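Here is an idea for our session: we take a single protein and study its fold together. Once you have written the record down, we can walk along the chain together.
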Amino acid sequence: MKRGPGVAAGPYLKLKITNYKQGKVMEQLLINNSASMKTVVETYIIEETQELIYDNEKLDQWNNLVAELGLTGQTTVVKPEKSPIPFLWMNKALVKVFEELCPRKTKIEEYSKTPIPVEALSLASLSKKEGYFDKIEVWYNDENPDPAIVGYKYTTGSGEWERNWYAEKYLLARWSDVKATLAELTDRAKKLFTLRRTNELKDSIKRQQRELEDLEIESNKQFGFGGENAVGLPF
């Protein structure tokens, strides 16, 4: 029913206006929260090999050159029908950086601390389809997750521990609320390592100091002096 120019707004219209205003307020709150809680996803794809993932012609060219040049080292890490692993290879130093920042490790199928962003999931999906890795894990920290996805390529080892230790590791992606370069992550890992080891050494010094203070008491108990029954000496 139309309302004339002199007719007051009814309760239904007021309710719609009120709901509209509340909706706009809620929408703005969500936008603000989204901006303040935005997750930054960083991926580690090597540009030189990225085009080989989807370009079969260039992949064939790459395989032909590898065969022509006799690059046996390349053939041990890449299957002819698959593209080369396009992710950042982790040397020992980089592995230690991420193990310091993310001491907890779990298979990607079992990770449940935070939602995995779609950009990171797509790289894990690609890796499974292409068969790049023997295992994919999420590394994280309980107190401040900032997780990373790491792929394992087994090289040797009889048991799981040995296979994991000797595996070639590749960094697929990490996500956090703050963007950070690898150099910044390395600095952060150094500070955490220094703080952790300082606390460990201080605790060790305290334990050794207590043992040192109790050494005389322990000696007396050991050899029967200081209130203990004296040990009969043979001289």
